[in-house]
Amino acid sequence: MTPRGIGEDDHARFERPQRRTRPRTKIRPDYSDAVVGMVITIDRGRYTCLVDDHEVIATKARQLGRKGVIVGDQARLVGDTSGADGTLARIVEVLDRPTVLRRTADDDDPYERPIVAGADQLVVVTALADPPPRTGMIDRCLVAGFDAGLDPLLCLTKADLASPDELLALYQPLDVPVEVTSPGADLDSLRHRLAGRRSVFVGHSGVGKSTLVNALIPQAHRSIGAVNEVTGKGRHTSTAAYALRLPALADHPDREPGWVIDTPGVRSFGLSHVSRDRIIGAFEDLDSIARDCPRNCSHEAGAPDCALDAAVERGDLSAARLESFRRMITTDQ
Ligand SMILES: Nc1nc2c(ncn2[C@@H]2O[C@H](COP(=O)(O)OP(=O)(O)OP(=O)(O)O)[C@@H](O)[C@H]2O)c(=O)[nH]1
Ligand SMILES: [Zn+2]
Q: Where does Zn(2+) bind (predicted)?
């Protein structure tokens, strides 16, 4: 090593704040007293976690580094986990995620953003009017959901303003379950579909997500805007998802009620991270036919020798179903 090199090194060390790369002691931290909580929302570096039945505010421990913590995560917490006013716990570990719903800001965005962990159902909320439905958005949400291994549910709101018939016909061949709502509508069927599940609600701004969440969970007060319990400030536009526990079903009071994870309205749903194979894997009939496709077949209209076309010609697959599937995977906005 040249003297000059040493000098530079010393200089750099002097200029930069010392970074502690090792724990202070050789004793590995013992987190046997850690408790596990579910992250229910995130606001400016503060993670609200539900431990048993109380909320605990936590920060992310330094050893997690850049590893993200997202809503729905099961996190191990140490420190003051009492949840008392002014206390802060630390998240030291995130347990394995059974599922991760992701999106990219747009299709060219190289960074996929995990938004919710551990969900098993994706509720695509679309207004029948005001704002008018956009099938491109519905399709993109469905694709992201299939990619993440979530079961889809299409929820059409504002049926008082326009008929759902056209959309129902469009999605019928995909066998996506649909719920139709309007002000004061009976939500019993929707409640049963949500019972015991972890359902993420996604959709454009203004489609009526908050209205629906408030109808399902009267104590949610979503339309008023979440009052920030940390700062005590009133309405602020949250950019994070928010997990809310559903009330128990009246006819099944003993069943695990399930969760709704409301997400802020989004303008688009980028899909640059999505794998075609995983999407077609969500459709058993199409998947078994597509095994005969050429390697790396896009399965889109005009894809050379796509086995899905041959199946329609043979009469093994309905043209409407293939058309619906192709419309969904064709990612025009
Ligand atoms: N006519 C009609 N209006 C509705 C219905 N559901 C909600 N609205 C209205 O639509 C507007 C938007 O509803 P929100 O529940 O705030 O929509 P949101 O999807 O939560 O919007 P963001 O919070 O921006 O994501 C409000 O004025 C609601 O009163 C419905 O079924 N019919
Ligand atoms: Zn194909």
A: 293, 297, 299, 306
Residues 258 and 197 reside in one and the same domain: yes
Does the beta carbon of 99 lie inside 6 Å of ligand 1? no
Where does a domain end: 75, 94, 113? Answer: 94
Q: Give which of 332, 274, 325 is closest to 300, Cα–Cα.
A: 325
Q: Is 300 within 8 Å of 326 (Cβ atoms)?
A: yes
The values of phi and psi at residue 170, to 5°, are: -70, -35
- Residue 263 has which token pair? 């997400």
Mutate to test the pocket of ligand 1, among 125, 181, 186, 210 (most ligand atoms within 8 A of CB): 210
Does residue 16 lie within any of the structural domains?
no
Q: Is residue 78 in contact with ligand 1, taking CB distance under 6 Å? A: no
Single residue among 52, 67, 94 that ends a domain in this structure: 94
239 C-beta closer than 6 A to ligand 1: no
Q: Which ligand is nearest to the CA of 158?
A: 1
ipTM: 0.97
**Nearest of 171, 94, 186 to residue 133 by alpha carbon:** 171
CATH of the domain at 74: 2.40.50.140
**How far, in whole angstroms, is CA 285 from its chain's centroid?**
26
DSSP-assigned letters across all residues of 302-313: T-TT-HHHHHHH
pTM of the model: 0.83
CA of 306 from ligand 2 middle (Å) equals 4
What gap in Å lies between CA 56 and CA 227, rounded to an integer? Answer: 16
Query: Is there a contact between 259 and 246 (Cβ–Cβ < 8 Å)?
Result: yes
324 within ligand 1 shell (Cβ under 6 A) = no
pLDDT digits 0-9 by tens, 60-115: 998 887 788 999 999 999 999 999 999 999 999 999 999 999 887 666 666 677 88
